[in-house]
Amino acid sequence: MMLPTIVLVGRPNVGKSTLFNRLTKTRDALVADLPGLTRDRHYGRGVVGSKPYLVVDTGGFEPLVDSGILKEMARQTLLAIDEADVVIFLVDGRNGLAPQDKVIAERLRKSQRPILLAVNKTEGMQRAIASAEFHELGLGHPLSISSAHGEGVRDLVELALENFPEPGEEEESQGNQVPKVAIVGRPNVGKSTLVNALLGEERVIAFDQPGTTRDSIYLDLERNGKRYTIIDTAGVRRRGKVFEAVEKFSVIKTMQAIEEANVAILVVDAQEGITEQDAHVSAYILDSGRALVVAVNKWDGLEDDKREWIKREIDRKLQFLDFAKFHYISALRKKGLGELFHSVDAAYKAAMAKLSTPQLTRVLEDATMQHQPPISKGIRPKLRYAHQGGSNPPIVVIHGNHVDGIKESYRRYLAGVFRKAFQLTGTPLRVQFNQGH
Ligand code: GDP
Ligand code: GDP
C-alpha cells in the first residue's frame, strides 16, 4: 500500500517547519535524536492513530518570495505538490491574510489536489475570529491550529487522511512469502547498474504501475533457487524493446519503495563518499523500521588510501546503521553480489523472526538479573515478561510495573541483549514497555 503523502505549503514564517517537526516526532522516532540529521530534513514519516503517512515541508526549498512579491512557486515545491495526496496550506492567523497567500491559493487551486487550509498560531485567539478573513481564499473552511502548542494538529491530520484506509494487517506468515527488496540511494550511485547486474537479460517487469515519478518498478528475481521481488527506484523501465529513462530523483518515491519493502539495499558510492543525501535516505530507512543491507558500490579500481578514506567516512557518518551489514561491491563488474544477497537473506530472516513469549521472557529475566533497571524517583521498575508485538521490524513488548521510569539507556541495553540472543542482524529492533498486566 502506498502511504499517503501530505505536503506543507505556505509563505515563509507561517510555521511550516514547526508543524513538520511536530508531525514527524513520533514516539519511537529514533531519527529525531540523531545529531546532524534533523537539519535540512524536509521529508519525514508521521503516524496518526495507526495510519502512517509521509510529510514534506516545502519551506526549505527555493525561496517563494522575490523582493517581497511572490512571483512563482519554486520548482521543487511544485514537484512536491504534484506528488501530494493532500496539501496543507498554512497561513498565519496573527499576521492575517497576506497578498502572497492569495497567489499561493491561486496556484494551489490549479493543482487540483485536495487542499486543507490551516490557520496557524491561533493559540489564545478566538478560532472563528482568527480564521474569518481566510474564507476569502476560497479554499473551504479554514481550520485553526497552533503548531507550536499542538492544538488542532491531530484533527487536521485525521481530516487530511480520512479518505485513506487503515493499513491492512501484514501477511505475517513467513512460509512462502517472496521477500521484497528495494534498491535505493541518491542518483548516480549505481542502482540501475546493480539492478541490471542482478537481472541481466532476464529482466522482467513483474507488475508495473502507472508511470508517475513516485512509482517504482517491480521486478521478479531468482537467485540460487530463491525468489525475490526487486523494487527498482532508479526509473529505467523497459517496455518491449524500448528503454524509457524517467529518472528524476524523487525522495517520495524512495520513501514509498522503502515502506513497501521488507529489506532495503542502500547503495552508496565509494568514489564519492557519503553525502548528506545518503544520510537522509538512511534516516528514512531507520524511521520505517525496514531491514537494511548497505552496498558500498564502485569498489573496483579504488586505490588503497581511497578505500581507507571511505571506510572512515562510513564510520563517521553512518554510525547509526550499526545494525546493518556493509558490503563492498562493484555492480559494474558484478563483484560481491553473492555475499550481498546472503546478507539480504539474513536480514529478511531477522526481520521476520518469530520470537516466542517464553524465550523472550527468559532472555528478559537474564538481562534484568545482569543489570536491574535503575531506580527512578525512589522506585525500581519491575519487568515481568515480554512478548512479540510485530515483525519487520521485530517489536518486543515488555510488561511490568513503573515502566514509565525506564530510561532510554536501559531500553537500549535491553535491545542489545535481545538482538544478540536472537541474532537479529540487519534489522532495526524496537523495544516497548507496557504498564500493568
Ligand atoms: P516556516 O518558515 O513556515 O517553516 O515557519 P517556522 O516553522 O520556521 O516558524 C516561523 C516562526 O513562527 C517561528 O518563530 C515559530 O516559532 C513561530 N511559530 C510557528 N508555529 C507557531 C504557533 O503555532 N504559534 C506561534 N505563536 N508561533 C508559531
Ligand atoms: P543510478 O542513478 O543510481 O541508477 O546509477 P547508474 O547505475 O546509472 O550508474 C551511474 C554511473 O556509475 C554510470 O556511469 C555507471 O556506469 C557507473 N557505475 C555503476 N556501478 C559502478 C561500479 O560498480 N563501478 C564503477 N566504476 N562505476 C559504476
TrEMBL record:
Residue runs in coiled coils: none
Domain EngA-type G: 4-168, 179-352
Binding site for GTP 1: 10-17, 57-61, 120-123
A GO BP annotation: ribosome biogenesis
Binding site for GTP 2: 185-192, 232-236, 297-300
Keywords: GTP-binding, Nucleotide-binding, Repeat, Ribosome biogenesis
InterPro entries: AAA+_ATPase, G_ENGA, GTP-bd, GTPase_Der, KH_dom-like, KH_dom-like_a/b, P-loop_NTPase, Small_GTP-bd
NAD listed as a keyword: no
Transmembrane recorded as keyword: no
SUPFAM superfamilies attached to this UniProt entry: P-loop containing nucleoside triphosphate hydrolases
GO MF, any single term: GTP binding
Entry similarity comment: Belongs to the TRAFAC class TrmE-Era-EngA-EngB-Septin-like GTPase superfamily. EngA (Der) GTPase family.
Subunit structure: Associates with the 50S ribosomal subunit.
UniProt function note: GTPase that plays an essential role in the late steps of ribosome biogenesis.
Protein name: GTPase Der
Organism: Methylobacillus flagellatus (strain ATCC 51484 / DSM 6875 / VKM B-1610 / KT)
